[in-house]
Automatic annotation (TrEMBL):
Localisation per UniProt entry: Cytoplasm
Domain of life: Eukaryota
Organism: Parnassius mnemosyne (clouded apollo)
Protein's name according to its UniProt entry: Nuclear migration protein nudC
Main localization (coarse): cytoplasm
Molecular function as annotated in GO: unfolded protein binding
Amino acid sequence: MANDPERFDSMLLAMAQQHEGGVKDLLSTIVGFLARKTDFFTGGKDGEWEKVVKDTFYTHAKKARDEAEKIKKEKDEAEKRLKDIQQRKEQERLAQDFEPATVTEITDQEAAKMQEDIEKDNKNKSELGAGEGASSDKENDSIPDEDDDPKEKGKLKPNAGNGCDLENYRWTQTLEEVELRVPLRQVVRPRDLTVIINKRHLKVGIKGQPLIIDGELDADVKVEESTWVLQDGRNLLVNLEKVNKMNWWGRLVTTDPEISTRKINPEPSKLSDLDGETRGLVEKMMYDQRQKEMGLPTSDEQKKQDVLKKFMEQHPEMDFSKCKFN
């Protein structure tokens, strides 16, 4: 406590507020006190008080410069992190926008078969059009309104960013990440903040004050790819990278009110947006659907046929003419 340089701050601040002339008048009062009530100027050798003043002022001037440089460095690093995040997102968007199209060649026989199926499908639609029009109203009447679903009662409508605007913060989301914005209502430095991102827990606040957020996240995040940055000393931006990139979050932390994920309006996506495993699964489903529509075997059925054909070729002595295969 004796070495605490801030122990007289409140007293000196009160004195400073009473000096309309600012720091110059405050210094004059302190120096006048030394002259009237102490032997600071007369008790030592000639020039000694000048050396003390000079050493003291230069010491504190250096501390002030070092502190200012440190704050500037932290601000520059925070701005660089934010710029890197924005550049990465822009590069991802450009890569998606300029992704080259792929062309799959088909044989003349496959083309003829596809054309035949299209004509057949158009013919069926024209024959059933009137009947479907009459029954569509009845079908629509039987579809329950989302607002009538008891599971949806009490849930909030998502904001424009598919997240939620709350009293102390706002969050938005894509399938890949969650973006959190926290207005701090005062100017702070990065070191004044508490931001702890764990796999399933988030803490956000200003040191020495109650936490703004302290709760379990709606789903797991990738800690090593999640970042935060302080903007203009007043706004905290946190980016959380989702582990599961196929689900929408209903809330940021479990203590928040829940939004209706049914009412989320996602941006148009491409196969290139998906990870390798998910993309492969979707492409397989699309291929199997096309095969079924054309009356052709799916990928799994084709695989079984290939295995059977190979077995029959390896065993020509066996008679398969009367066998039935499922």
